[in-house]
Design goal:
Pfam families: Beta-prop_DCAF4 (PF23761)
CATH superfamily: YVTN repeat-like/Quinoprotein amine dehydrogenase
Structural class: mainly beta
CATH topology: Methylamine Dehydrogenase, Chain H
Number of domains: 1
CATH architecture: 7 Propeller
Number of helices: 0
Keywords: Repeat, WD repeat
Radius of gyration: 17 Å
CATH class: Mainly Beta
Protein name: DDB1- and CUL4-associated factor 4
Order of helices and strands: EEEEEEEEEEEEEEEE
Largest sheet: 4 strands, antiparallel
Distance between the termini: 25 Å
InterPro entries: CUL4-DDB1_E3_ligase_receptor, WD40/YVTN_repeat-like_dom_sf, WD40_repeat_dom_sf, WD40_rpt
Strand order of the largest sheet: 1-2-3-4
Shape: globular
Oligomer: single chain
Amino acid sequence: MHENLYFTKRKVNSVCWASLNPLDSHILLCLMGRPETPGCATLLPASLFVNSHPGIDRPGMLCSFRIPGAWSCAWSLNIKANNCFSTGLSRRVLLTNVVTGHRQSFGTSSDVSAQEFALMAPLLFNGCRSGEIFAIDLRCGNQVKGWKATHLFHDSAVTSVRILQDEQCLMASDMAGKVKLWDLRTTKCIRQYEGHVNE
């Protein structure tokens, strides 16, 4: 990254792979704000990070969105949220369409520190500082009651969520070092992986 033209001294809160169509690849970065510069989510072409052709002019930034206070981000490959990404903020989730600029905001009771879209089901899973894990049903608008589809709980702040096994299970880790495998059909923990000490 030290040779990259887009190297930043700002803290990267979250990063994920993104693609607007099957022929291109991008990287979605959540950058923390500073007093003089608001936080933002930036979509960069992955070609910026390849040193195969030194000296060739790099393409410019695809797009940047002012999103202060973003803790996490996730790119959607779900057809129900095509060309969309999500950012986890302080007490809310912001869903943004990069093509139209349309945004939906969902209020939460805690800061959202981890996110992942399901591929087949129209769901966005979110892990919170409070230890709560919930899914947003993407078919519901933010004004409709019942947009929270699933509730799971850890004893400390959730740092990572990953959907596994045909979207029937979810793996989550937390600040206490616990890693749990959840059955999304029964909403029960089916396995806890012991021995982890790193947050």
